[in-house]
Automatic annotation (TrEMBL):
InterPro entries attached to this UniProt entry: DUF4625, Ig-like_fold
Record flagged with keyword Transcription: no
Protein name: DUF4625 domain-containing protein
Signal peptide: 1-20
Taxon lineage: Bacteria, Pseudomonadati, Bacteroidota, Chitinophagia, Chitinophagales
Record flagged with keyword Signal: yes
Keywords: Signal
Originating species: Filimonas zeae
Amino acid sequence: MISIARKLAPVLVASMFVVACSKNDDDAVPAPSITVTELGSDNSKIAFAGSDLHVDATLLAPGGIAGVAVEIHPEGASGWEFDSTYTEGFTGLKNATFHKHIDIPAEAAAGAYHVHFTITDQRGQKAEFEAELEIKVDPTLPTISGFAVATEDGGKELHVEGNIVAQNKIASVTVEVHGSAWEKEFVYNGAAMVGKTTYSLHEHIDISAAPAGHYHVHLKVTDQAGKEKEFEEHFDK
């Protein structure tokens, strides 16, 4: 019996080693990653005080997303700061598109800023992405007052309205509607608005194909100098 046990011992040890290795392989989940594809309009890495910062990023997390943190701070001693962690709509997903518009207050100081993105998975693994950002002040940017949205006709239409002022004359207006399961862009550049410095926007948008849920509405005014500014609203369907 002792002889048999001695012969079996190496086999048992080898089996335990294989099981342990297999368990370690199962636990070895790749770290998450984040790739920022757009920071500022057309990835310009420029934003304007009193407007918003457009951010698009690709998220990958085989271990499941726990959250995405965005931090913005000035390169100098003083300036505007931003720090927020996003979990809603991301938690548990293994891949996702991060599409956000971050409001920059009108009193934000112009200058150089640093942006940090951190994705954390449900195992505590992290990945970071860093970028430079310039905040500018431009009083000639288009503005809109009274911007409001509301669903009509049982949720089949979206009413969008607002009063636009563009010192450099209006070139176009773009309305983007997006939710977790549906998004669509609508461009308006009719003769009634193009070339005008003021315009009362009043549109009814067909959203009958959009499923029930929470939606963001981004209205972008582009002027004939190529400058643009975005405004945001929300609605539930």
